Amino acid sequence: MMPVTPRLNRMFSEQGKCFDVAIDHGFFNEFSFLAGIENMKQAISTIVEANPDCIQLSTGQARLLQTIPGKKKPGLVLRTDAANIYGSELPKFLFSELVDRAIEQAVRLDAVAVCVNLLLLPNQPELHHQCVRNISVLKTESEKYGMPLMVEPLVMLPNEQKGGYMVDGDIRKIMALVRQGVELGADVIKADPCDDVSEYHRVIEVASGIPVLVRGGGRASDEEIVDRTVELMNQGASGIVYGRNVIQHLNPAGMTNALMAIVHHGASSAEALELLKGEGQ
Predict the structure, then answer these.
(1) DSSP string across 89-138
(2) Interval 152-189: pLDDT, tens
(3) Average pLDDT score, the chain
(4) Which secondary-structure segment (H or E) carries 54?
(5) Which of 17, 26, 226, 248 could share a disulfide with 36, CB 3.0–4.6 Å?
(6) What pTM value is reported for the model?
(7) Residue-level pLDDT at 25
(8) What pLDDT was estimated at residue 185?
(9) First-to-last CA distance in the chain?
(10) What is the tens place of the pLDDT at every residue in 241-275?
(11) Exposure pattern of 187-197 as b/e (b: 16+ CB <10 Å)?
């Protein structure tokens, strides 16, 4: 069994912090997710120039990152499962399907980690079971190759309540699912924020020392996303995984720089917003 430390050292800073920009939304067959990433080569180039720690991509798009010449570019986090749960109406048959030989593909693509869902939807125990099985399969393979396993516990509201892909911010549900991800062998957790982010230290605690990166979720105002990020870092998060709040922003590079300042340098909300304003000029 190979250690995961070498790849984690490429993913996290010396202080143990990470900003991963997720651009894997096209994997899920949902038209609304394509906003801002219709031209993937351009989207990836823009984010690479802003230089976050990682970029999260699918197997089919990872080449656009890894064929960029030079040593200075973000690490690749490889999305390993495609799901069909993100539309405004749930289909009759739900799945979260692993790509074939995901860990071998991650090694070939020089990934620093792989990411897999741990989905909890109301009244969908079969889907949750499939995700648990996916994680178990990946854990066995990832240990062979020293590939860090990022588990994404995702608690969702009923579709009839708020439509597709809406986060349930109940901290008790988030804590329980995060802990299950840790118990299944996660090396990194990618978790939802809770309704009251001042309580997020409780999520960090149940993660039992496993680093927690917090998801960005749907689009929010600059002030909201910056204030939330500052508080989450103060609560003990090891970083963030934001997608739409970066790639759908009018200034993706500026937002990346502002968030990097919060994650790695402890910037305040005012400092981050000033940096974003300056980048936009």
Answers:
(1) S--SS--EEEPTTHHHHHHHTTEEEEEEEEEE-TT-HHHHHHHHHHHHHH
(2) 999 998 877 655 557 899 999 999 999 999 999 999 99
(3) 93
(4) strand 54-57
(5) 248
(6) 0.94
(7) 86
(8) 98
(9) 50
(10) 999 899 889 999 999 999 999 999 999 999 999 99
(11) bbbbbbbbeeb
Asked if residues 103 and 139 have their Cβ atoms less than 8 Å apart, the reply is no
Question: What confidence score (pLDDT) does residue 31 get?
Answer: 86
Residues ≥6 apart with Cβ < 8 Å to 88: 159, 163, 164
The token pair that represents 94 in the structure block: 């739900």
For residue 153, the cross-strand partners are 118
CA 58 – CA 81 distance, rounded (Å): 9
Q: How many CB atoms lie within 10 A of CB 35?
A: 12
Three-state DSSP state, 256: helix
Find the length of the chain: 281
Round to whole Å and give the CA distance between 119 and 130.
Answer: 9
Which stretches of the chain drop beneath a pLDDT of 50?
281
Angstrom distances, CA of residue 57 to CA of 14, 121, 171, 196, 250: 24, 24, 28, 30, 21
Spatial CA neighbour of 156 closest among 170, 175, 142, 146: 170
State the amino acid at position 126 in one-letter form: E
